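Troubleshooting log. The previous structure file for this entry was overwritten by mistake, so regenerating from the original sequence record. Sequence copied from the archived sheet and checked twice against the printout by T.R.
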Amino acid sequence: MKTTLRTDITVRDICEGFFYNELEGKGLFGLNGRLIIQPEYQRNYIYADGKKDVAVIDSVLKGFPLGVIYFNQVGDQYEVLDGQQRITTLGRFVTHKLAIKDKNGMEQYIDGLDEIERNRVLDTHLLIYICDGEEPEIKEWFKTINIVGIPLKQQEIRNAVYSGPFVTALKEEFSNSQNPYIQKWSAYVKGSVNRQDFLERALDWVSKGNIEGYMSKHRQDTDIAPVKTYFNAVIDWVSGVFNDVMSEMCGLEWNRLYEQYHNKPYNVTAVSQRVHELYADPYVTNHKGIFEYILGGEKDKSLLNIRVFDRATINRVYAKQTAKAKQKGVSNCPDCALQEGSNSTRIWKLAEMDADHVTAWSKGGATDEKNCRMLCRHHNRSKGNK
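Regenerated output below.
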């Protein structure tokens, strides 16, 4: 790959014909139409946070270098290989879509600056390398130069490697902050639209975890219906079974639960009531496990991480139970004492016993000293909710 250093291009030049799409939140063109600012393999614009974008403009006003920018030459046009965030920020400022605060804390757009400061921004020369190479070289270089700064997420790298009509269509659906379904998705999928988290989850679900293989296979497709259909089927199923939206629902393995339980009927009113009961139960310490626990028929209590007896309670119950057993000449495990054999009189050590609910938690038993007894490990682990 051949590179050529250019130092003659200014901010004024870059921003000629700059167009920023407010709907999609990205800069599209610059250099009078000769520069494609966000080619399909680029991540979304993520500097619009009132901090990083303002810092770029502040650096220019103070005469600080902005760092090296890389363009990829495509015929008589250029694509931004690295520097999209900085260029888009400059373009937004020059076209009055971004304001900064002056020394007095007042908001100022570029026209509010004095002539010296305004020209300092517009006449700043940028350090740009023009890269000319084959697509595989360009994509590999894109990954390499993005190691520093704000690291690329894995899906942002995948979008670059498998760029094409499929990625373009996917980003329009799952990376578009104006998509009206984002709010609903956010209740169940963790992450950021701009950082490709929703897109990654949709691909992960439909591909059963083989995202790279799926993207490679469908790279030239323009139809993303299978991805949308499956993703929305999962989301609609979750929201249909659970009327209540709890914060702990976000980020759960809903695709796995969908595959396992979506053919099972549920009484949504009863489900809602049970969710609230379990949330109110002081002995349930893992609220994230409530949903799978209910879907699975309330069989796996380990999902709830039921609060166990504390060490002080265990020590007191063991001492009392053992003292009584010795007086009677029977085992300090009540179940062993009821059986014949050598264990019927055995006094188990504390380390050989487990604390057990007399009345099971699932049947309303409390985790307190009155409802605690010690059993040998064999009997405790072989009992159910008796």
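The CA atoms of residues 143 and 151 lie 10 Å apart. Archived copy saved in two places this time.
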